[in-house]
Every structure is written in structure tokens, then in C-alpha cells.
Design a protein that fits this description.
Elements: H1 19-26, E1 29-32, H2 50-53, E2 67-70, H3 76-90, E3 95-99, H4 116-135, E4 139-144, E5 147-148, H5 153-160, E6 168-171, E7 179-183, E8 188-190, E9 193-196, E10 209-213, H6 214-223, H7 234-239, E11 245-250, E12 255-256, H8 270-280, H9 283-296, E13 301-305
Parallel strand pairs: 2-3, 2-4, 6-11, 7-13
Antiparallel strand pairs: 1-3, 4-10, 5-12, 6-10, 8-9, 9-11
Helix pairs in contact: 4-6
């Protein structure tokens, strides 16, 4: 399968979110350390500036790399779940970052056809990337608030780190719809799993759980600031040269909890809100949730190919 040419795209003039833009972004965001780690008597901090959001990464000691959780207290069920779940796996060594798309400034968005949820998700991931640049973090593990992490997630991340370059993305949970083809050439065994190069960059799926390097984070900011595409538009980012290469960890050590879609909790205009409240009291809500559960937990159709992937090799392999 031939690699698509990487077409140029107008980039933002700065390699990271400008100070004013980032401050505006953080006015609608949240970054927390869990109780016992915040250093503020256990009080939750709703931040209003970049200076307030940046927390010393030296305190994130439970993981070999910092872990950032994308979540918002507005979605209470998910927010409570992910904090309890991550703490059960890692203790207090994580941070929660979220941007509320409903209240995002229009200047942060280039394509206004995106939904508020898509905008908030993209801005949340961009906020994490900006923190990486502000703190000069070489790598970060980013997870969303519906993941189920294995008990040995710290070991999984530790096993992957020696095989990473700053321009790399490694997906830990592949949810691409349809088939995924992985190359059996140039693989890397990491514990009980294997790092595979996909046969096409479009085989990367959602942003539910992935490790990203500093250069890759910088690159995605440069092509998606203001927000042009959704957070998991990996083929767009790759085609614009935002990151160097990507691999998929298979079999995936991470699964996803079948939460009800956030459509049911998002504020809306009057007509949509009335429809939402009506559906809450009907069996349709449970049908939609059951269908979502079946969809996200179905077994992935993964094909192993003897051909070499057209994606570039990681510089860590050189």
C-alpha cells in the first residue's frame, strides 16, 4: 500500500498556542491533581490562567511518564469513574485536563461545522500538548474518561518508553471502525504485547489512550490551532507532517467502558434540550446505550500483513 503524499497545509505562526490564546482556552478548562496531591489542602481548583494550570510534573511519580486524563466535572458519571479508576491503578500520579466545548471562544475554532463536543475534545488534547511544551515533557500518556486500564499500565508504559522517539505516537487502544492491517515487519515486542506499524495511517483509531512525544505534540498544535479537525484525525496530522510515525500496541491492553454517550448530558438549544429530556424517560435511551456498548466492545478485526508498512520507521529504531 503506497504512502499518501504529505501535502502542505497553512500552519499557525507559532509552534505552540500563544499565551493569550492559551489563557482564553484555560478560562474554560480544568486541571486537577487528585486529593492529597494538589498541595492546596485538598481543594479543587478551577483555573482561569495558564500559570495556574501548570503543576510541577515532579509530583507525578506513579508512572514512568506523566499521565493526563481528559475529563470534565460537567459529565459527572464519567468524571467520578475515571478518577477512582486511575487512582486504583496509579495512586495520585495523574492530572485531569478538560475544556468545555460549549463555552469555547469562537477564536479557538477554525471549522465551526464541528460539534461542541468535538471542539471541546480537540481543545482538551491541545491543552495537554501545550502543557507538555510548557514543562518540556518528553512524553505523555493521554487517556480519555471511559478507558479501562490494566493493573500493570505503569509497566506497559515503561516497556514502551525505550522504543519511542519524540516525533512518535503509539496507540494503546485501537478503535478504528472496520478492519485494521498491521505489518509483521519491523515489530517490537514490549512485554506481552507487540508494537506494529499500521499498513495505513488511517488505521489509527480514537484518542482513547495513546502515548505521544514532545515533537509530535508540537506538530499537532501547529496544524490544529485554531481547531480545524477532530482530535483523532491522525491521517490529517500525519499528512501535514505534524508527527513522524505511529504504531499500534497489539493486542490492546486497554478496553473501554460503555458509558451512555455524552449527548444526554450536554447543554443544548431549547428544541434539542426538550428532545433530550423526553428521550431520558423512554426505552430509546437504553437501546442507544446498549448499541453503543456492543459497538465499542466488539472484537477488533485485525489482519497481520507480511508486507512492510509504508510508514517511516521510528528514529528510536535507528
Amino acid at each position: 500500500m503506497a504512502l499518501r503524499p504529505r501535502a502542505p497545509f497553512p500552519r499557525s505562526p507559532a509552534p505552540k498556542l500563544g499565551r493569550g490564546l492559551f489563557n482564553n482556552l484555560m478560562k474554560r478548562s480544568l486541571s486537577d491533581k487528585p486529593d492529597g496531591c494538589r498541595g492546596d489542602g485538598g481543594r479543587k481548583r478551577h483555573t482561569s490562567s495558564a500559570e495556574n494550570i501548570l503543576i510541577n510534573s515532579d509530583e507525578m511519580t506513579s508512572m514512568p511518564i506523566p499521565i493526563f486524563v481528559i475529563s470534565l466535572p460537567q459529565f459527572a458519571q464519567r468524571y467520578r469513574y475515571i478518577r477512582r479508576h486511575v487512582e486504583s491503578r496509579l495512586g495520585v500520579g495523574y492530572e485531569v485536563v478538560g475544556v468545555y466545548g460549549v463555552e469555547a471562544d469562537e477564536g479557538l475554532v477554525y471549522d465551526h461545522r464541528l460539534s461542541k463536543g468535538q471542539i471541546g475534545c480537540a481543545l482538551s488534547h491541545l491543552a495537554v500538548y501545550n502543557i507538555m511544551l510548557e514543562r518540556n515533557l518528553p512524553y505523555a500518556l493521554v487517556v480519555e474518561d471511559d478507558v479501562i486500564l490494566p493493573k500493570n499500565i505503569a509497566q506497559v508504559a515503561s516497556d514502551i518508553l525505550p522504543h519511542l522517539s519524540s516525533g512518535d505516537v503509539v496507540q494503546l487502544h485501537n478503535t478504528n471502525d472496520g478492519k485494521t492491517a498491521l505489518s509483521t515487519q519491523m515489530t517490537t515486542r514490549v512485554g506481552d504485547h507487540v508494537l506494529y506499524y499500521p499498513m495505513d495511517i488511517s488505521y489509527l483509531g480514537a484518542t482513547s489512550a495513546y502515548i505521544i512525544g514532545n515533537d509530535a505534540a508540537r506538530g499537532i498544535i501547529s496544524v490544529n490551532n485554531p481547531v480545524r479537525v477532530v482530535a483523532d484525525h491522525w491521517d490529517f496530522f500525519f499528512d501535514q507532517g505534524a508527527f513522524e510515525t505511529a504504531r499500534i500496541l497489539h493486542p490492546s491492553p486497554i478496553s473501554v467502558k460503555a458509558f451512555e454517550t455524552t449527548l444526554w448530558e450536554s447543554p443544548s438549544n431549547g428544541r434539542v434540550l426538550r428532545l433530550k429530556n423526553f428521550l431520558r424517560g423512554t426505552i430509546l435511551r437504553h437501546i442507544f446505550t446498549a448499541r453503543r456498548s456492543m459497538h465499542i466492545n466488539r472484537r477488533r478485526d485485525v489482519t497481520l500483513s507480511a508486507q512492510r508498512s509504508p510508514l517511516p520507521l521510528s528514529k528510536a529504531s535507528a
